[in-house]
Structures are given as C-alpha cells and as structure tokens.
Protein: MFS transporter
Amino acid sequence: MSRTNIQEKSWILYDWANSAHTMIIMTVIFPIFFKKVLAQDMDEHSSTAIIGYANSIVAAVIAILSPVLGTLADYKDSKKRFFTVFFMMGVLSSAGLAFIAVGNWMAGIILFALSILGFSGANIFYDSMLIDITSNDKMDRVSTSAYAWGYIGGNIPFIISYVLISQFPKFLPSVTTDAMTRVSFLIAAGWWAVFTIPFFIFVKQKYFVEHKGNPIKEAFVRIYHTFKNAREYKALFIFLIAYFFYIDGVVTIIKMAIPIGLDIGLTDNTLLLILLVVQFVAFPFSLIYGWFAKKFGTRPVLFFGLGTYFVIVFIAIFLPYLPGVGLKTAFFWGLAMLVGTAQGGIQSLSRSYYAKLVPKEKSAEFFGFYNVMGKFAAIMGPALVGGLGDLTKNTSVGISSLLILFIVGLISLIKVSYMEKEQNNA
Structure:
C-alpha cells in the first residue's frame, strides 16, 4: 500500500476490518455452529434452508432501504453518519451471538440476520466513498487492493479462532469447543470495531448534494428524476442488470459453500481448512485482477472472471454424484481454488467499474441502486439453492439454477460493452 495516501489506506483497511465478520460469522464458523449446535435437532436440508432464507430476507430488507438511504447520504457529511448506524448494528449483533443458548436456533438466526444487515448496510456507504477518496485512474487498484487485504484481514482472526476451536480443548479439557466457538464471535466483533477506527478518523466525504428544504422529500424527488432521466445513464443501468444476475451466483457460492460441503459429507475441519486456503489464494489473485484490468481494461477481465464461474458451476453440479467422500473432497478442493482465483477480482472490479460510471456528487444514491441489485440478487441465489435442495432433497438441483443467472449476466455485460463502443465511435 506504499503508493496510497492516508485516506486510501484507511478506506482499504475497512475491508481488512469487516472481513472478520465475512469469514467467522457469514461464511464459515457460524453456519457450522448453527447446524451443529443451535439447530442440532433439525435435519441437514432444513437447517441449510433456514440459513439460505435468512440471507434472502436480509437481502430484501437492505434492497428496499438502499435507494432512499443512499440518496439521503449524498447530503453533506451524511455518508459516515449512516455508515456508523449500520456499523454499530453489525458489531453488536455479532458479539451477541456468543451468548445464544444451545438449541435456541430462532434467537441465533435473528442475531445472524441483524449482523448481516449491519454489514451490508455499512457497505453501501463504504463503497460509495471510493469516489471521495481516490481518482478514476486509481479506482481499479484501490478497489482490488481493498479486497486483497480484506482476505488477509479475514484470515488472521479466522486462524486465531480455528486454533482456539480445534486445539484449545485438547490442552484444557474443561474448555469446550462450544465455548471457543462463541469466543470466535467476540473476536470477529472486536476485530471489526478496532480496525475501523482509521476510517472514522481519516476518510472524508468530498462530493455531496446541497439540500434546501425537507431532505427526505428532496431525496424521493431526486430518485424520481434519476429514473425519469434514465436514458442519460443507459449504460450504467444495463450494467446494473448484468451485475444483478452474475453477482447473485458469486455471492450464493460464497454463502452456501459450507452448508453444501457438509451436505456432501465433508468434515468440519476439512471445510475450515479449505476456506482458509481459499483466502490465501484470493489475496494475490485480487491484485492480479487489478493489474490485468490496468493492462487490458476492466471489462475483458470481468468476462474472464465470469468464464471461471461457468466452469465452477458445471463441476459443482456433478459433485454430489461422485463416488466416495475422498473423491468429493478432492473435487471440492479444486472448486474452492477456482473460486479463490475469481471471487475477489470480479467483485472489486465490478465496484470500481461502476464507480467510474456514476455522477460523483450522487455516488451514494447510485451505490444505493448498486446495492439494490446485489441484495435482490442475493435473495434469489440462496433461496434457490437452499429451497430447491430442501424440496428435492438434491443439492445439485439448486446449484444448476445458478447457470441461468451467469448466462443472463454475461449477455447483459456484452450489451454494455457494445453500448460503450457505440458511444466512443459517435
């Protein structure tokens, strides 16, 4: 991060901070804890479905709130105020998971949902401030750097938690795995809180919209005028459609990897180790995606990332049918490595590509729409994978639905490419 200024470093560091929640609560440890401890009396398909439904409900809530919150946040000094509210919600609910009683799956899933709501809501304003802290020519590098360092920032508390959960009870029999798992939730909350401090100190809102009357009324008027004049932002809105579909598949694969791995017979320790290695793979590949974007352009690298996900889904469909846990484990390792090469790059470049398209003074408003697409997409994916898997008792049926989402996303992204070429030739 030597070429970055203090604002850029502080903005990047927030990805380092909140990735503890991504690894420990959203993706790895809490889903296992939920299935094994809080929902221990449920069958595997039902507990997997509940996690999927919780992710979908939260996505719906944040999608409904995003446009209005984003538009309000474009007023002077408002982005960090909204950021703070959601940040506190996420940190406190994450810590609260440590105190849920065994078998109380309802309380656990509610706090889990609130933590994701806080995480997702804060990201609306965090993402939109990419425009405030750097220039267009540096956006790809700053965005991919944030994702890259986020993987390392997620790994460190995850490794600490993994060691506590897997090793501590061996040396101190009086300390249970359950207790150490709960400690990991406190570690996630503390890590997230402490490393967000530089963001609060150094990151400032540079671009904003002045309001003269009632800010809420003006916010709705601005949203109306944005859609009324949508032709001015045609390429931007087509990109949002592309993003809506392909990010659905990306996020679903990330969120549902652990439940699916458990369903096909992988052990807890194997899944934890796989997810840990994926983070180390994702770190350099996020930076590589940023380097290739500078050399070849952002869109071609996005196309490459989508191609990688087509391969991932095709292989994943047949994964449950492989004979023996050993072969399934080997293929799951391969799929995980492929995900590690692509997930950070495609997400970070989508963010920076979109940031270059939006009007700077309306960045939070347009990132509100960006989050609408991401969150509404995240409603479909987990619900399809979890719901169809539960209905048919066959996880492959849910996984296969992701192919349609990636195809539509690819076609829409090609449309954006043609539109920009026409504009350049005009």
